[in-house]
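anyone seen this seq b4? input:
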Amino acid sequence: MKLLQHLFENNHRWVEEVETENPGFFQRLAQGQSPEYLWIGCSDSRIPANEVVGLMPGELFVHRNVANLVIHTDMSLLSVLQYAVEVLQVKHVIICGHYGCGGVMGAMKGESLGLIDNWLRFIKDIYHRNEELLDSLDEQHKADRLCELNVIQQVANLVHTTIVQDAWQRGQNLAVHGWIYDIKDGKLRDLNVCISAPEQLNEVYRMDVRID
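predicted toks r here
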């Protein structure tokens, strides 16, 4: 007997429900994907990307990692981004963090968590740059604000990549958004960070990319 038989049973019920509501859905899905959105979110099990935004399979390309970080040496993320932008031609990249993020909370504390400390160092850098503001807040508001600042920084990191700037140089319509999710009420909040052109960047980060 399979140890996870109940998950296969759940899968079969889900397939039946989808096919009942939308006959032939999986056959159409098998023909290919053309999502308009790339979601870069946290690995936290409480944030199911498709369900949060009410989209079906095939409508949202997804990458997740601890604390939704965009690191310029992360080949996994860069590969997802390149494929989404250049092959799938997505129009929107959404970086979505969430309040109560374990990665952010871990970065705020001085205790060692092991290997992941190296990953969370990037959030500690954000804390350090905003230390005066954050230390003026109580613990709850400090944690919430650091979650928001983390998303804002990751939006900046993303639009500084050659992948995004190459797309803009080609005239491709591409916007990068910063959102945050509140697990307590299930609602998304727009952090009003949206970048869709190189003119919105500080000049030092703009790349004069030549397209032959």
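The chain has a mean pLDDT of 94. The CA atoms of residues 11 and 17 lie 10 Å apart. kinda curious what u guys think
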